[in-house]
Amino acid sequence: MEFRHRFSDRSQMMTPSPIRKLVPLMREPGMISFGGGYPNASTFAFSTVDIAFKSGITYTIDHQLIDLACQYGPTDGHPFLLPGLQKWHVAKDGWMPQRNQIQVLNGSQEGLHIMAYLFLNHDDWVAVSEPAYPGALGAFRAFTKNFLSFPIDGDGSITTELERRLTKHRSTGLPMPKFIYEVPSGHNPGGVRLSLERRHHLLSISHRFDIPILEDDPYQLVQLEESTVLPTLQRLDTKGQVIRLDSFSKIFAPGLRLGYATGPSEVIQMFNLYKQGTNLHVSSMIQVILAGFLEKHEPDDFFRLIRANCRIYRSNRDVMIDSARRFLPESVHFNVPVEGMFLWIELPIEIDAELMLDRFGMEYKVLMVPGSAFSTCGGLKHCMRLSFSMVTHAEITEGMKRLGAMIQKMKS
Ligand SMILES: Cc1ncc(COP(=O)(O)O)c(C=O)c1O
After folding, report:
1. Tell me, what's the pLDDT at 28?
2. pLDDT at 27
3. Cα–Cα distance between 72 and 82 in angstroms, integer?
4. What CATH topology corresponds to 302-411?
5. Residue 9, CB half-sphere, CA atoms under 13 Å: how many?
6. Residues of the chain with pLDDT under 50
7. Which of 192, 216, 266, 360 has its CA 20 to 30 A from that of 15?
8. pLDDT at 411
């Protein structure tokens, strides 16, 4: 897939930093650099950093490494991290991105913003599910108000409906969406995963309508069942039409703000240009910490740790589903989440969840996000997202009991 003609007017004006271009050259053996305005490493505040991981393994950023961890680094990613990231990606997804196909990010949220910045003029369109992750809607809305939405069910995005709506949209003569936004695993807020059949169908739609896919997959490894992880859209893609965002937030530590984009080099180069003009690169120290973790934990060890952590989410999910069945009226519908951290519930259509929470949330002392937050058009008012990641079993049971009582009060 060719990308040049798809970029927004603003992103066509970006130019590479003449100083950033020197960064890789400065590491050439024997090079004497009068180049970048780097502070002298002897002035840095740190001498070493000792890290103890919960796995029992320790890692020291020693005297040799500390200067690299404290200094400016290349924009695409720290040289200490990139090989580990490639190894991780191939172990996880069965596809090895080349160095010019990776950009390390401050979380995948940064990638959502960059995609919108790079692709969207104000009259452009984006295809998104209804409901959709509000962080993505927020990132996209800064650039356009035009959303072509498609529904989800227990198997994820209803791709036949997307296809129908794209066909109809094309007949209106309006510009086609610049990209299709998809959260294939543990959909936020739907909690569902895109079936294999629909993954193939989505790719064929992307190809047929000549629209790239933005695959945002932070819950890929947050598996609540023993079933195997489905192949990513990027892995199934044969035409270079998927830009993928990975995140370490749900499997490592969100406060570190670590994620990365992979995809066609033409797009990744634009991600790089964007970062050159905004924050230069992700914190070197944080990248070195992740590099150390990946060096000390083989992918299989990391998978094992993630699976162990998922048991927490799985048992929380089970308690929440059990409580939903016991305490919520039968007229409330939900799918059992198989990945991720969320339960999406649909109340009887006449109940406005936001109004209910405004009126009774404080009285019943129970909180959740009303459905309208996930809508492109102020809809989904009768829906709610419940997160089961951070609560104890006792809190889940009590909270669901209160929710059931609040719904009954609202109905009466
Ligand atoms: C679907 C989805 N995309 C992106 C993000 C942002 O993640 P990160 O912490 O990597 O920026 C989230 C966070 O909750 C999310 O649910």
Report:
1. 85
2. 76
3. 15
4. Aspartate Aminotransferase, domain 1 (3.90.1150)
5. 5
6. none
7. 216
8. 85
